[in-house]
Amino acid sequence: MEGLLTLASDPAVWAALITLIVMEVVLGIDNLVFISILSNKLPAEQRTKARRIGIGLALVMRLALLSTLAFIVGLTAPVFELPWKGPLDSHGVPAWELSFSWRDLILIAGGLFLVWKATTEIHHSVDPAPNDDVFDTKTAAAKNFGAAIIQIIMLDLVFSIDSILTAVGMTDHLPVMVLAVLITVAIMLVAADPLANFINNNPTVVMLALGFLLMIGAVLIADGFGVHVPKGYIYAAMAFSALVEGLNMWSRSAAKKRDGGGGPTKH
């Protein structure tokens, strides 16, 4: 108890907590967008339940990972390397070499899954089945509640490992990590339904969100191969795209009001 009181009285700990919450919320956006898109494919009465289960599983998974920090940190140790190496520099050291840790393999697998899922959904949106629309593709995975939850779990694992490794790199205090995770998941629970409903009610936003998932999948794959793309670039691009789409929606809304309110009514 005294240790917790000591942490609570340390301004540096509060600064780390606030910074970590902001980072966790930003990282959680990817997870939330995926859950929103996947849950919107289910029947209306199952959507909120799927979101609650998906976010609840994310919380359980992150807390479980926090309890095994030594194991999580060990995931970054190389487990094998490929024989191909880059040209030697002046010191006789290869310019690059391909070695993979369990974290790398998990990121690559998660990235491939995201690319596959986003590509599949974009295909169904552009070329839907007969008597189908962008929200009802009649695919077994989207219609089956259990299959949707399994897909959410798979991505929860990838995003949770990335989230915990970020937390480990920012603070050494486990209570701070746990509190940041709890606050982040609470924010995700509050934002889940409004975000999912907004995506569901705006078809162009669905395509934009799928584009985000495609980009995030490519970044995860690149990260798994050792090519680290700064997260700031990714989220700046996402924010700019969202701003442009917001302006488009505003323009369409203004045009609709002008068309609806202007000119004499014809009988």
What does this structure look like?
The chain has 2 domains: 201 residues; 38 residues. 75% of the residues lie in helices and 5% in strands. It has 10 helices and 2 strands. It is globular, with a radius of gyration of 22 Å. About 3% of the residues have low confidence.
Range of strand content: under 5%
Alpha plus pi helix count: 10
How large is the radius of gyration? 22 Å
What is the assembly state of the chains in this entry? single chain
Largest sheet: 2 strands, antiparallel
Total strand segments: 2
Overall tally of domains: 2
N/C terminus separation = 77 Å
Helix content: over 70%
The low-confidence runs, each spanning 5 or more residues with pLDDT under 50, are 131-139
Spatial order of strands in the largest sheet: 1-2
Name the overall outline.
globular
Note the run of SSEs as H and E. HHHHEEHHHHHH
Average pLDDT confidence is 75
- Structural class, by secondary structure, is mainly alpha
SSE diagram, text form:
Layout lengths: L1 H7 L2 H29 L4 H23 L2 H6 L3 E8 L11 E5 H25 L13 H4 L1 H26 L3 H28 L1 H22 L6 H31 L6
Helix pairs in contact: 2-3, 2-7, 2-8, 2-9, 3-7, 3-8, 5-7, 5-9, 8-9, 9-10
Summary, kept brief:
With 267 residues, this protein is mainly alpha-helical.
List keywords for this structure.
single chain; mainly alpha; 2 domains
